[in-house]
Structures are given as C-alpha cells and as structure tokens.
Amino acid sequence: DFLNNMIAECKRTVGEAGLEFSDIETIMISLATIVRDAKILGVKSGLTADLNKEGLELITEIEQVLSKAEELEGTEVRLINDGDLQAWTVSRRLNESSVAVLRFGNTLAAAVIVDGEIAPGIGELTKMVIDMGPDAVSHPQTGVSGPVGYYLSHTGIKEIAKRRGLYEKYPALNDSANGPELLGEWLTSDDSGQRRDAIAVFEEVGEWVAVFSRELALVYPIQKFVLGGSVIAGQAGKMIIEKANEILQDTDLEVEMLSH
Fold it and tell me: Which of 168, 215, 224, 235 is the most exposed place for a label (fewest CB within 10 A)?
C-alpha cells in the first residue's frame, strides 16, 4: 500500500503540474524520518550519519522499486530529507551550484549544496556549536551548549530576547505564543524603547548568522548563504542580513533572503 500510494502521489503531482514523465529527469520525494515496525531507522540526509544500515537498505530498496515502476515510465526516484530537498531546490532556483540554505523554524533546518549535490560530512547542522561562552544556551535533550539550532530559529530568537531580559521587561511577550513575531512587529513601532530592544535582538541574530557562515565556510567551499522562514520575514530578515553582511564584508561570503 505504501508503494502504491507513493506512485499515485507522483502521478498526481506530475499531472497537476501539467508535465509528462518524459519531461522529468528525477522525482525527489521529501521525508523526515524512516520508521519500520515501530523502530526509527534514521533520517535520509547527505548531512547526517543518523541513518543506520537497515534504514539505508530500506531507502535504497524503495528508490529502486519506484524508479522501475511502470506507472512512472522509468523516471528516477530519490527519497531525500526535507531540509536537503529545499536546499537542492533553492540552488537551482538561484542558479548557484554551491550554497547553504538556513531556514528558521522552531529550530534550524539547514543544508549545504556543493557542485550541485547535497554535501556529505559533518552531521546534523543544527547541532553544530557556534557559542562557547559561559551563557550559551543548552540543548534540552543533549545538554550540549551553544548549538546553532537554538540561535538561528524561532526558539533562538526567543532565547536571545530572554537573555536580554525582554520577557521580564515586556509582559506582552510572555502573553504571546509568537513572541519572536511580535518582536519583528516592534521594529517599526512608534515606541522607541520597544523598537530599540527589538533591533538589538535581530542584530544579535545577524551576528550569529555571520559566525555560523564563517564556520561553515571552513568546512565547505561555499560563499552564498540563503535565509528563509516566516519568523524572519519582512524587516526582521532585512536587519539580520544587513548585520551579517556588515560583519562579513572583509570576506567573500554573502548572506541573502530567500524570495518566494
């Protein structure tokens, strides 16, 4: 049933796009976690070692079966982690063969494309340490201090604001489930105090973007970093990018916002 559903979904998507299978070189199917018999086998990603041997064999088997499916007319099918798929798509949209895509969600969804391919190597990017200071945020599950996912994300913006005392200073932030979005609105507030505090938060986010970009560029031959995510849409994203590029102006690295 699983394979039949996958085939039906491929056919539906191709048909709704007004395409023929002869127009398509590869079908990419996004997924996050592989589970069989209530056992998590891992995540298929060019950037993680979390996919164990059983999971890798299962993915390979599924890809081979789908690629040979008569209904898909022999089109190659690849199953790919959702963050990697987004980065792969962005690289082609921007016509950039090497690029890092950083999407701000509850945590950070990040992936790297090098020479048009998903880059292997250093494990989940969201776990990469960027803050080694005494006040670094600790990952609640692993206990590791300073992971980038808790700085460049919805959670990260909230934590930065908390460290600056803004959740104590402004009760409205505690009363809102979307404190980071509210901070983004304050960037254009008539209240100079709110505006000043919000600017400080998003400029700090920009500083961490610059730190992460420098570290990542030491590992991969990339120069362009693309940010996305609704929490940094509008003025917030512009401020983050301006600050990051200001810090990176003595390098060949460049940060920009993903346009939709």
Answer: 168
Report the C-alpha dihedral over residues 53, 56, 60, 66, rounded to 10 degrees: 130
* pLDDT tens, position by position, 138-152: 877 777 888 888 899
103-to-76, 126, 137, 139 alpha-carbon distances in Å: 27, 11, 19, 18
Q: Which helix (H) or strand (E) holds 106?
A: none
- Residue ranges in the chain assigned as alpha helix (H): 2-16, 53-67, 82-93, 154-163, 166-169, 171-175, 179-186, 192-219, 235-247
- Answer whether 203's CB lies under 8 Å from 243's CB: yes
Strands 99-104 and 224-228: parallel
pTM > 0.70: yes
**Residue 217 · residue 225 · CB < 8 Å:** no
Locate 260 and state its tokens: 């939709």
Cβ-in-10-Å burial (0-12, 13-18, 19+) of 250 comes to exposed
- Find the farthest-apart pair of alpha carbons in the chain and give their distance in angstroms, rounded: 64
Query: How many CA atoms, within 13 angstroms, populate the side-chain half-sphere of residue 199?
Result: 10
Tens digits of per-residue pLDDT, 151-206? 999 999 999 999 999 999 999 998 878 899 999 999 999 999 999 999 999 999 99
